[in-house]
Each structure stands twice: as structure tokens, then as C-alpha cells.
Write a structure and sequence with these properties.
With about 290 residues, the chain is of the alpha/beta class. It contains 13 helices and 9 strands. It folds into 2 domains: about 170 residues, NAD(P)-binding Rossmann-like Domain (Rossmann fold), CATH 3.40.50; about 100 residues, Orthogonal Bundle (6-phosphogluconate dehydrogenase C-terminal fold). Helix 4 runs parallel beside helix 5 and helix 8 packs across helix 12. It is an enzyme of class 1 (oxidoreductase).
Length: about 290
């Protein structure tokens, strides 16, 4: 294995889980973290990383792979900051939830060499809670890990094929899409569910506030539907901003679907909606 040193910029849920998963999968090289001083101290004390630095340029020095595991806006900033200073032999990759704007920025920074320098990716794993304290070594097990290649196959990038192999050892399932298709699919499959959960919880808050009755009568359905509403705004602000067109389209069509349901609460069309929903759910789990 030629990957002997990995830097993870951002030691939150995803970055911290990645470090733990790498260790569990048998990676015996050096793991370097980059985050706030107190996060680095905690991660080092817990054995999540070997060392860390608050400066991303310093943290990236000497690493074979640098993983950008910050919110999307910070990923874009880090590409601009690290791109000119890390050597061509270092693979930059990310775990951001949107890909098109990230890939565009990498192409602006690296030019024609973008395909050999940067590997955009998105592990389809997460939770409604964020932070290193929620990191889990098994977070990626059985989860798709999407790669949106730039200008060719991963073999063009130093360490890329080896990194994808490491991802498989974490228990993740590598899949490949172009960035534009990824962002449209993810708007519907991830970002829309988040907005629906947020809107539902917000509507309940506006309607019932501190009324204890809603909590007393709450069943599993409401708990399941509002689980994502516990997600933090700072991460989602960047996700929404970098996929707003796709998400706006998904929200509009969802609003139309809700209107159709409202207008057919006592009509035969309601059964058709349930039948269609049942088919989708069955196919999703097959």
C-alpha cells in the first residue's frame, strides 16, 4: 500500500467516523486531523487520529491523501487554499453532499489536471446529529459511496484507485455518477426528505408549540418523519445553496403532489396515490 499518511480536514460526524473506520479496517498508516484546537485535542486523546493541526496547509503536508470533510462551502474554500500548495502526488478528495459546484471549483483551480488531482465523492451515510462525539466506525458499512469522476477514470489520479479500494474495506459500496446527475438524484433522495422533515416539525411547532398533548399522543410515525428535523442548519445552509435549482424543482413538484392529495381526500385518486407510493417503497427495498 502506497497510502501511508491521510489527512482528514474536518473531524465531525463524517470525518471522525472515517478515521475510526479506517483504523477498524486495518489501516496502519498515520492519520492527521485538521479542526479547531479543542476538537483535535479530543480526537487525539480518544485515539481517533495520531496528530492534528488547526492549519489545513500544515496538516496536509506529507500526506498521500487529503480528505475534505467540512461543510460544502468550506470544501470549496479548501480546494482553493490547498490546490496551489499540495504536491501533484497528493490526492485531494471530499465527502460533500453536493458535487457539481465542488467539481467546477476543482477544475478552475487545477485546470486540465483536475481529473488527476481531485476525486469528488459523497458517502451516502450520516445521521441527524453532528460532531465528533457521534462518530461511528461502522457508519459507512453497507452504504453507497458515490464518486463523480472528473475527466476520466480514477487510474489517472495518484492514489485514487487505492483510495477507492480503501473505501470498499470500510464496508462501503463504490458507485459512479457524473456530478450533474448526482446532484439531481440527491436533491430528491436526500435533500427533499430533509426539507419535508424540517417543514413538518416547524409546522407542528407553530401549531402546537409547548402543548404537551402532542408529545403524549406522538407515535412512531411522527418520530420517524421528524427525525431529520434534528439536523443542524450550518451544514444544510451550504448544501441547499449549492443545489438550490434541483431542490427548488423537487420542492415544487412535491408541493403539487400535496395539493393533489388535499384535493382528493375523498376521491378515488387517493387510492391511486397510495398504490403508487406502495410500489415505489416496495421497489426501493427490493
Amino acid at each position: 500500500m502506497t497510502i501511508q499518511r491521510i489527512t482528514i480536514a474536518g473531524l465531525g460526524l463524517i470525518g471522525g467516523s472515517l478515521a475510526l473506520a479506517l483504523r477498524k479496517a486495518g489501516f496502519d498508516g498515520e492519520l492527521v486531523g485538521c479542526d479547531r484546537a479543542e476538537v483535535i485535542a479530543t480526537a487525539t486523546e480518544r485515539g481517533v487520529i495520531d496528530s492534528g493541526n488547526i492549519d489545513p496547509v500544515t496538516a496536509a503536508q506529507g500526506s498521500n491523501v487529503v480528505v475534505l470533510a467540512t461543510p460544502v462551502g468550506a470544501i470549496i474554500d479548501l480546494i482553493e487554499r490547498l490546490g496551489p500548495v499540495v504536491p501533484a502526488s497528493t490526492l485531494l478528495t471530499d465527502v460533500g453532499s453536493t458535487k457539481h459546484e465542488i467539481a467546477e471549483r476543482a477544475q478552475q483551480v487545477f485546470g486540465s489536471a483536475a481529473g488527476a488531482r481531485f476525486l469528488p465523492s459523497h458517502p451516502m451515510a450520516g445521521a441527524e446529529h453532528c460532531g465528533l462525539e457521534h462518530a461511528n466506525a461502522d457508519l459507512f458499512r453497507g452504504a453507497p459511496w458515490v464518486f463523480t469522476l472528473i475527466n476520466g477514470q480514477p487510474e489517472q489520479a495518484s492514489h485514487a484507485a487505492e483510495w477507492i479500494s480503501l473505501v470498499e474495506k470500510l464496508g462501503a459500496i463504490p458507485v459512479f455518477f457524473d456530478a450533474v446527475r448526482h446532484d439531481r438524484l440527491i436533491a430528491w433522495s436526500s435533500h427533499l426528505p430533509q426539507m419535508v422533515s424540517t417543514a413538518l416539525a416547524s409546522a407542528l411547532e407553530a401549531e402546537f408549540g409547548d402543548d404537551p398533548a402532542i408529545r403524549q399522543i406522538c407515535g412512531r410515525g411522527l418520530n420517524d418523519m421528524t427525525r431529520l428535523a434534528a439536523s443542524g442548519y450550518p451544514m444544510w445552509r451550504d448544501i441547499v445553496a449549492t443545489n438550490s435549482n434541483n431542490l427548488r424543482d423537487a420542492l415544487l413538484k412535491y408541493e403539487q403532489q400535496l395539493s393533489h392529495l388535499r384535493e382528493n381526500l375523498r376521491g378515488p385518486a387517493l387510492r391511486e396515490e397510495f398504490d403508487a407510493a406502495n410500489r415505489f417503497r416496495k421497489n426501493l427495498k427490493s
